[in-house]
Structure to design on (1210 residues):
């Protein structure tokens, strides 16, 4: 290295990491220059987060070296990463929910044994930091009372309080409205002006194009390319991510909506903590159409699915093909819903849709284990279920097509196909779909989208919830936007754009 | 019930509440750090035996206390090894520790003393004796205040005063020190502590270390202060009742004091059926009275706790995740 | 693919845990100045060396099958039932009432009646903690422990004040009528020409216990209820999605579990003592925890583990008789088994998993497919 070149803020050389039989990172090398925003993009499971966790001392690499500002640095634990000036904002925030902002900020970076002294000193520093970067948060607010955007600021402040020069953000916009995301990008821009180095991990091409200076692409644990953002295009990046040309939109014929299948009037849902999550929802879904619900996570979409799926209670009227369904009584459960012809692909397949330790065949019966074809006398006919599963796995191209493999041993896409096969092949009148492609590889996304459209074309009603606007646009025949337990408005996909939906998602009435 | 009976009743309440209070605070440190500990019972029992055994052999109750604490620490280390290092099931580990203590104490007692699983009765320096506080004798005759000071407040062993002093001390450590902040954080969200560069494992071991010291004192109190020597299974479910008190107290130190005093009162009433009879006008069966603390525990857990929110990471071994 | 083959999971892991527990037990025996090898010899000859020994071993094993199954069934729904002791005690009360107050014409009818009463009483004693957990949120572990203590006091009260025959000083019921006496293994095996010790208490209840193992196996893996119970145990959130009621599963599981624990009473109360005495359960409820853990909550595993503990129990009794090793040794062994098979499971498992992984890698240098998505 000559004296005139600036040393990279971070340089990784030959990093490899395996989890058991899975190679998460293979011989990865990367250089990040100081004062830049460097994007790392890749599909779910490409190994982005693993790489950053190694950099933050969370995992130990099997091989490879880390250089910080040109000096070889060992990072055995997070303490070492912090000392080396690295700060990390995780996808799932690492905050103590019932602590105040200030307590969270000083945790692990206290000043002496006395808490009172530490808190006093930290308060002054925090106020200074907030002013310097325009990151206003009430130091005495309790975390669980703050919105996600605010919580993210606390995470950034935590890193800055520890004097981080290098800031890693893992999928930071997943929980933000488009407007909040823009605000975050402004903050990141300001940090870059102050000379901080930022690594942005994301799977959203738009963000990469909007804010980064350079971008690295990861695929299946390997680094496939590093390019200057200005010299590339979304199409090129997408191809690098997947390794082949991708269809970014879904081929589908215009919908031919029939009669109203699902009719929701004045629906209210209050959760176990007593918070009202749905504040009077009116919606209709017709046969042969996909209604997409757009919105930032946590604005009542989950509760809507849970209520319709039979495991949240509510008030109001919901009719299916003209007959009312029970919202709070004896028949407000998943079993009754399935009997009525409502199938449900839940938002979180690992926590709800599947039992990860159960075999694929046991999961195929899940929720439908009362089905007469699965019984023989008093006992369950396990052989029949296995046969049925094998056939379903073939039709839905689940790999490997082995009914005796536990659900946890399938990839995200194949897990989702198992759920989809189970729910779609019941021939339901109404299909509820939550985040159908979350954590699913791009190849499987196409297949899953096709299956949903095919079901629509058979004249079924589909209610789709997704936080991915792209998915909402490409699948929906009609879009409703949810914010804070209300429907902010309905739009047709051809007559609106991301900007308008973004306003609605942030709770602002768009001018029509 | 006259005033003197009341004083006597409260006096034995204090004595019976002491081991519960120590064990409850022990459990508080452990559970606040996210480690369930149903092994309080076993640790108390082991400490009770080793305190009495060493006090009996050496004639020094202080050496006995040290031995009791050491025994409790060993069992705690085992619990930590199973539930922190090897991320095992904390409830099962606790159950194993309780049986280990129940079996080993008798086995060793038989091997050492050949008295059917008990230690010889402790005498003189082998026991913690009551301490008469200053002026206790002088004010004893002052009406009302006198008996309260002389009978109720004065005249307990040093361990009782340690137990009561441990309450504000625990509060201070938890809410006014760096260690306390980290301890509470690790029981709520260990990932936050880990990413902040503080060792989750280290904090949790520290917490169960403190827990074991308090349990050790509680056990020593049973065999060297409350009674004079060890008998088989002498902890008699106190560890479990302390856990119930901890839930009742919603994992807070001052409430732990009130909860254990309440359970101590149940215990005291059990020894005074005459008081119950005079209060309620009913004759109560001795055998049923014995079940009173357990029945009250069930009722309190079922009815009055309301929504007690335990430390959120409680019982869950910490596995690093992204 | 799972890291370990099934045989290693089912046989190797428990076996290694057992060997570890045995080594430490041997050290304990050494430490109290006795000879572990002589002790094992004495245990084997005392418990397995004669049909008398076998009769006791199988008698104890019968108890442990019931209590082990009780814990195992609850484990499948991720419920930890430490209350087997109290539930078995209540089961004893049910058996005593059935035997004392109903004039049975024949032992076979008495057995059916006693089974019903034992299961009913045991189930009742488990249903209260289950209800309190499902509806009031009280922790089932603490409540079932409390119910053990309460059961002990209750039985004490009933035996002293209600069921004790007038004039008797013994806190126990009267002897059960002749017609309720269950056939022993001696009587059962004599017709087919096998001579079995007359004095040993093993009786027809053993067959009931074996039947219970088979029924529990069918319940867990071949019925809808078993399916729901396991689903609930693996993932409560998923169970809710599927329409499985947490309340229903908690109640039914604990009722089955308590019923199984209660059934133990037909062995010890009806089959052996033929009257109800104080503390009739003698810790068998707790041994069920060790048996269930060692048997990996599988009825066949429970069957094997119960026989092993039957051997330990009878062998331990022989030791207490002929050496200065007290019976509490069995409690220590029980604790060690719980520790190694339950709490320290990972300690045994992790090195084994690494070993199997290394072996597999050596065999196939290139994995033919990518089985798991990389943990991101």
């Amino acid at each position: 290295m000559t004296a005139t070149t600036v040393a990279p803020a971070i340089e990784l050389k030959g990093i490899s990491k395996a989890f058991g039989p899975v190679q998460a990172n293979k011989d990865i090398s990367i250089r990040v220059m100081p004062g830049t925003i460097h994007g790392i993009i890749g599909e779910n499971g490409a190994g982005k987060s693993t790489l950053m966790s190694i950099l933050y001392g969370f995992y130990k690499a099997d091989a490879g070296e880390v250089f910080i500002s040109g000096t070889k640095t060992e990072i055995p634990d997070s303490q070492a990463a912090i000392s080396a000036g690295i700060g990390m904002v995780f996808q799932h925030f690492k905050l103590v929910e019932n602590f105040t902002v200030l307590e969270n900020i000083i945790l692990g970076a206290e000043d002496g044994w006395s808490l009172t002294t530490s808190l006093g000193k930290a308060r002054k520093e925090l106020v200074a930091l907030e002013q310097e970067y325009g990151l206003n948060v009430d130091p005495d607010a309790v975390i669980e009372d703050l919105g996600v955007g605010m919580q993210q600021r606390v995470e950034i402040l935590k890193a800055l309080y520890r004097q981080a020069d290098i800031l890693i953000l893992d999928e930071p916009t997943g929980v933000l409205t488009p407007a909040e995301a823009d605000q975050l990008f402004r903050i990141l821009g300001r940090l870059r002006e102050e000379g901080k180095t930022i690594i942005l991990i994301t799977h959203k091409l738009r963000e990469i194009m909007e804010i980064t200076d350079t971008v690295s692409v990861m695929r299946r644990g390997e680094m496939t390319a590093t390019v200057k953002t200005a010299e590339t295009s979304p199409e090129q990046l997408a191809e690098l991510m997947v390794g082949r040309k991708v269809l970014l939109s879904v081929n589908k014929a215009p919908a031919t909506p029939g009669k109203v299948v699902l009719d929701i009037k004045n629906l209210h849902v209050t959760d176990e903590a007593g918070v009202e999550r749905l504040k009077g929802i009116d919606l209709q879904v017709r046969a042969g159409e996909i209604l997409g619900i757009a919105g930032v996570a946590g604005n009542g979409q989950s509760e809507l699915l849970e209520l319709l799926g039979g495991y949240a209670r509510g008030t109001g009227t919901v009719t299916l093909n003209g007959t009312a369904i029970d919202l709070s009584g004896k028949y407000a459960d998943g079993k009754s819903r399935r009997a009525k012809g409502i199938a449900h692909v839940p938002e979180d397949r690992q926590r709800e849709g599947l039992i990860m330790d159960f075999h694929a065949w046991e999961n195929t019966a899940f929720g439908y284990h009362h089905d007469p074809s699965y019984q023989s006398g008093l006992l369950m006919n396990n052989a029949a279920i296995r046969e049925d599963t094998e056939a379903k796995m073939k039709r839905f191209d689940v790999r490997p097509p082995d009914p005796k493999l536990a659900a946890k041993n399938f990839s995200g896409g194949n897990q989702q196909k198992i759920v989809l096969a189970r729910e779609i092949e019941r021939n339901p009148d109404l299909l509820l779909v939550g985040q159908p492609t979350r954590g699913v590889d791009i190849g499987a996304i196409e297949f899953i989208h096709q299956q949903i459209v095919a079901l629509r074309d058979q004249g079924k009603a589909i209610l789709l919830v997704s936080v991915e606007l792209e998915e909402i646009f490409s699948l929906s025949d009609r879009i409703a936007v949810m914010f804070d337990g209300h429907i902010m408005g309905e739009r047709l996909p051809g007559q609106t754009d991301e900007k308008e939906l973004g306003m609605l998602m942030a709770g602002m009435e768009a001018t029509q | 019930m006259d005033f003197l009976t009341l004083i006597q009743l409260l006096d034995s309440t204090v004595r019976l509440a002491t081991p519960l209070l120590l064990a409850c605070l022990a459990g508080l440190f452990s559970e606040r750090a996210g480690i369930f500990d149903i092994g309080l019972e076993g640790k108390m029992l082991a400490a009770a035996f080793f305190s009495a055994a060493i006090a009996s052999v050496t004639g020094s109750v202080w050496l006995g206390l040290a031995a009791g604490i050491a025994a409790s620490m060993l069992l705690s280390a085992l619990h930590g090894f199973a539930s922190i290092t090897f991320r095992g099931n904390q409830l099962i580990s606790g159950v194993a520790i309780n049986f280990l203590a129940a079996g080993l104490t008798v086995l060793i007692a038989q091997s050492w003393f050949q008295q059917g699983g008990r230690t010889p009765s402790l005498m003189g320096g082998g026991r913690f004796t009551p301490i008469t506080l200053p002026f206790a004798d002088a004010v004893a005759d002052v009406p009302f205040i006198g008996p309260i000071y002389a009978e109720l407040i004065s005249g307990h062993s040093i361990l009782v005063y340690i137990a009561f002093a441990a309450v504000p001390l625990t509060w201070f450590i938890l809410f006014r020190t760096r260690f306390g902040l980290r301890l509470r954080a690790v029981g709520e969200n260990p990932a936050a502590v880990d990413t902040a560069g503080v060792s989750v494992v280290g904090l949790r071991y520290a917490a169960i270390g403190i827990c074991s010291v308090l349990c050790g004192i509680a056990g020593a109190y049973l065999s060297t202060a409350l009674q004079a020597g060890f008998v088989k299974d002498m902890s008699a479910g106190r560890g479990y009742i302390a856990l119930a008190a901890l839930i009742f107290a919603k994992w807070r130190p001052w409430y732990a004091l009130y909860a254990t005093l309440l359970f101590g009162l149940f215990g005291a009433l059990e020894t005074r059926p005459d008081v119950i009879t005079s209060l309620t006008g009913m004759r109560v069966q001795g055998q049923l009275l014995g079940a009173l603390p357990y029945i009250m525990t069930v009722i309190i857990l079922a009815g009055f706790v309301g929504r007690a929110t335990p430390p959120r990471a409680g019982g869950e071994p910490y596995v690093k995740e992204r | 693919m799972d890291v370990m083959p099934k045989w290693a999971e089912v046989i190797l892991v428990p076996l290694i845990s057992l060997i570890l527990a045995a080594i430490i037990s041997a050290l304990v025996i050494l430490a109290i100045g006795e000879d572990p090898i002589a002790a094992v010899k004495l245990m084997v000859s005392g418990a397995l060396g004669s049909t008398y020994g076998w009769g006791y071993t199988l008698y104890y094993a019968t108890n442990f099958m019931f209590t082990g199954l009780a814990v195992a069934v609850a484990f499948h729904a991720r419920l930890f039932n430490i209350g087997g002791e109290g539930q078995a005690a209540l089961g004893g009360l049910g058996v005593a009432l059935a035997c004392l107050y109903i004039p049975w014409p024949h032992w076979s009818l008495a057995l059916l009646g006693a089974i019903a009463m034992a299961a009913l009483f045991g189930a009742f004693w488990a249903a209260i903690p289950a209800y309190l957990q499902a509806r009031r949120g009280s922790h089932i572990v603490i409540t079932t422990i409390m119910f053990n203590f309460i059961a002990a006091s209750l039985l004490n009260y009933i035996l002293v004040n209600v069921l004790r025959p007038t004039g008797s000083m013994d806190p126990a019921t009267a002897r059960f009528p002749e017609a309720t006496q269950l056939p022993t293994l001696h009587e059962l095996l004599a017709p087919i020409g096998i001579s079995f010790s007359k004095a040993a208490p093993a009786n027809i209840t053993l067959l009931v216990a074996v039947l219970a193992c088979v029924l529990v196996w069918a319940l867990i893996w071949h019925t809808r209820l078993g399916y729901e119970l396991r689903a609930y145990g693996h993932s409560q959130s998923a169970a809710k999605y599927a329409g499985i009621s947490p309340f229903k599963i908690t109640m039914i599981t604990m009722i089955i579990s308590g019923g199984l624990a209660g059934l133990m009473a037909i062995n010890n109360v009806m089959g052996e003592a033929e009257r109800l005495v104080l503390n009739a359960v003698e810790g068998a409820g707790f041994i069920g925890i060790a048996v269930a853990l060692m048997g990996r909550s599988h009825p066949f595993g429970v069957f094997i583990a119960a026989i092993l503990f039957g051997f330990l129990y009878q062998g331990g009794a022989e030791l207490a008789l002929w050496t200065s090793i007290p019976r509490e040794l069995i409690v220590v062994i029980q604790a060690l088994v719980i520790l190694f098979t339950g709490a320290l499971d990972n300690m045994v498992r992790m090195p084994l998993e690494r070993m199997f992984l290394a072996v597999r890698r050596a065999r196939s240098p290139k994995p033919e497919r990518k089985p798991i998505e990389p943990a991101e």
In short: DSSP finds 17 helices and 22 strands in chain A. Chain A touches chain C through 54 residues (CB under 8 Å). The mean pLDDT of chain A is 89.
